[in-house]
Specification:
By secondary structure, this protein is an alpha/beta fold. The protein is built from 8 helices and 12 strands. Helices cover about 30% and strands about 30% of the residues.
Length: about 280
């Protein structure tokens, strides 16, 4: 079982979406005016500034006691509590840490929030490039929302967070499943700054959840209905054409095809870069 740790309002809401899947143990670090006794939830007292959260970050050794293996840490860099991210991550050293970084709509952030967001995003990417973390996934909320079409305001964040969690979960599941055909290249050692998304099967449109500058590698995951795998003689040609369409000397692509019992086909994509995304 993997561990999912959400920090702040967005991080906790995202962690709740992963709680739908039995493969994850969920931990939440929330901000509040007083501490509450809730299982697997820790309350950090509200501070007046980002520096306040960083300087007063509590010991979480008991809260994280016994955690090992894979850990997914989720944070929205525009929240002041995000300034405590490194202090918290230092206390997760027994785990192999992957960061899921959520970038809110920059157009509606204050100047202070934009400064916090840019700083946190830059620092976490540098740590990932240095292999302190396994990887950092960057996700841009407006881009995800654009793939969902018209969403009622009341359910906006819930639908966006659900799409992010479901996509990453399915990619993780297929990464540990037996493929029918294909081969997935291992990302380069320096390519630890990543994003993910999906491809619309009918149109072939690629929907990445963050626009990476200079991606070095892409991996495509084809989840195809069992009957279609047995009857569609043109499928392999279509897959190869799609995978090779955007490949060039500076961008390598690989793919894997998986058999499913789903009525519909799904195509997921993951992209990796070695460059810090500004």
């Amino acid at each position: 079982m993997s561990v999912v740790i959400g920090l702040g309002k967005t991080g906790c809401a995202m962690a709740d979406q992963f709680s739908k899947y039995p493969q994850y143990e969920i931990f939440k670090i929330r901000v509040g005016s007083r501490k509450r006794r809730v299982k697997n939830t820790y309350t950090i007292l509200k501070q007046d500034s980002p520096e306040g959260y960083e300087n007063s970050c509590p010991s979480l050794k008991n809260f994280f006691k016994g955690l090992t293996g894979q850990a997914l840490f989720i944070v929205d860099g525009s929240e002041p509590v995000a300034a405590a991210s490194l202090r918290i991550l230092e206390q997760l050293k027994p785990c192999q840490i992957t960061v899921l970084y959520i970038r809110s709509d920059l157009q509606f952030l204050s100047n202070v929030q934009c400064l916090i967001e840019r700083s946190v995003r830059g620092v976490l990417q540098e740590y990932a490039r240095s292999a302190v973390f396994e990887r950092i996934y960057l996700v841009d909320v407006p881009l995800v929302a654009a793939t969902l079409g018209e969403v009622p305001i009341k359910f906006y964040h819930e639908r966006v967070y659900d799409a992010i969690a479901a996509t990453l979960h399915m990619i993780t599941v297929f990464s540990h499943s037996e493929m029918v055909m294909g081969a997935l290249n291992e990302p380069l050692e320096m390519s630890r700054i990543s994003t993910f998304g999906f491809i619309e099967p009918e149109s072939g449109k690629e929907n990445l959840f963050f626009l990476l500058d200079y991606p070095r590698e892409k991996r495509y995951y084809y989840a195809i209905n069992e009957e279609k795998l047995q009857t569609d003689g043109s499928l392999l040609k279509k897959v190869k054409e799609q995978v090779l369409a955007g490949a060039h000397d500076m961008l390598k692509s690989s793919y894997a095809v998986y058999e499913t019992q789903y009525d519909s086909d799904y195509i997921y994509v993951m992209a990796h870069s070695s460059m810090v995304q500004l």
